[in-house]
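User: I'm writing a tutorial on reading structure tokens. Could you give me a worked example: one chain, its sequence, then its tokens, then a sentence or two explaining what the tokens reveal?
Assistant: Sure. Here is the example chain.
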Amino acid sequence: MALVLIIDDAAFSRRMIRKYLQVDGYQILEATNGREGLEMVHNHQPNCVLADLLMPDMNGFEFLEAMQAEELKIPTIIISADIQEGSRNQSYNLGAVNFINKPVKENELRKAVQEVINRKE
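And here are its predicted structure tokens:
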């Protein structure tokens, strides 16, 4: 089954996303910031990454920049409470494949992850 990495500094958000995705049988990894997430990408090669934008140590934009710099082609979906069009555009310019606003709707999240996983298979 596909491996999904959730990168978010908020434990509540990680818990909700995990709950939504476990319904579909995905294996879940969790990281609390972009630096930890990047390390997990190197060690586990997940099929999909879900990342928040505003996090300490390494934020979501910096995470996307690092992925791009290292030419890591793991589809990344941004999940953020930031509703600014500029943030959305910057995320896409840095390689994000989707952008979902918080609070996350279960069906929207599950559909977005399924699309990414199906595309890779």
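What the tokens reveal: The chain is about 45% helix and 20% strand. Residues 3-120 form a domain with the Rossmann fold fold (CATH 3.40.50.2300).
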